[in-house]
Design goal:
Rossmann fold; seven-stranded parallel sheet; 48% helix; binds NADP nicotinamide-adenine-dinucleotide phosphate; alpha/beta
């Protein structure tokens, strides 16, 4: 089964990451999945391995801990001897205004959305260079909040950073003569666990998701499948997706 391509996905225990895992399993990838919630990952892995006859490696990783990220990449190298795709999906935000927000919540947002994304990218590029002849594809889940500032706080700043990192990495890879591609998908409202965590309230999350038909995780997985499915000479840079009725 090692002749299948290998995709690593962060934040596969929920929402968009879980849908991307199922999408890439259906497209024939072996998977390396991480998040903190071990049980959720194990259940997803069992389902996908059975349904698609693929290999799935899962590891409980707190992306705020660099040592845990490095250990996940060691496990990927040991199990698969290579990596074709990294999807930097894990992310979060908190409604914590800049004039009175909590420092630790700002820090967690930047640690997961920005620093962990950079560490994972660096480690994935190492594997793609070591085993893959400098080929592969890295995909960031950004946000429409990386294209305009819908509300104050650290979340939008972190997603502007992701947008800058996408372009920075593209330039660096081209300067290096690498064949590795970098893409981003930037969604508006998607119905996941995100809004409850962001607002601190299930009720407020329901209000967001019930105002009009919002995007579903599968809509984002479809865009990821499209970006990854293009021939080697096509570099999809960023796909912006909004629910049709979202005006902001
Ligand atoms: N939902 C939206 O409206 C929306 C819109 C635009 C962009 N996005 C982006 O989409 C991505 C996925 O979010 P989602 O909507 O699917 O939200 P979600 O349902 O809350 O999923 C977030 C995922 O990130 C993981 N994660 C969070 N902190 C982590 C940590 N410290 N270590 C390891 N994993 C961590 C979670 O796993 P554990 O809790 O198990 O660790 C979970 O799997 C994020 O980058 C988000 O910014 C979402």
């Amino acid at each position: 089964m090692h002749n299948r391509p290998i995709a690593a996905i962060t934040g596969a225990s929920s929402g968009i990451g879980m849908a991307i895992a199922a999408q890439l399993a259906a497209q024939g990838y072996n998977l390396a999945l991480c998040a903190r919630r071990r049980q959720r990952l194990a259940e997803l892995a069992d389902t996908l391995a059975l349904q698609y006859e693929i290999e799935v490696l899962t590891q409980s990783v707190d992306l705020r801990q660099e040592a845990q990220i490095l250990s996940w990449f060691d496990a990927i190298a040991e199990r698969f001897q290579g990596l074709d795709v990294l999807v930097n999906n894990a992310g979060l935000g908190y409604q914590q205004p800049l004039t009175r927000g909590d420092t630790e919540k700002w820090r967690e947002t930047l640690d997961v959305n920005v620093i962990a994304l950079c560490i994972c990218t660096r480690e994935a590029v190492k594997l793609m260079r070591q085993w893959g002849d400098d080929q592969g594809h890295i995909l960031h889940i950004g946000s429409m909040s990386g294209h305009r500032v819908p509300s104050s706080g650290m979340y939008s700043a972190s997603k502007f950073a992701v947008r800058a990192l996408t372009e920075g990495l593209r330039k660096e890879l081209r300067a290096d003569g690498s064949a590795i591609r970098i893409s981003s998908v930037s969604p508006g409202f998607v119905e996941t666990e995100f809004a409850a965590k962001y607002s601190g309230s299930e009720e407020k999350a329901q209000q967001v998701y019930e105002q009009f038909p919002v995007l579903q995780p599968q809509d984002i997985a479809n865009a990821v499948g499209y970006a990854l499915g293009q021939p080697a000479h096509v570099q999809v840079h960023d796909i912006l997706l909004r629910p049709t009725q979202q005006s902001s």
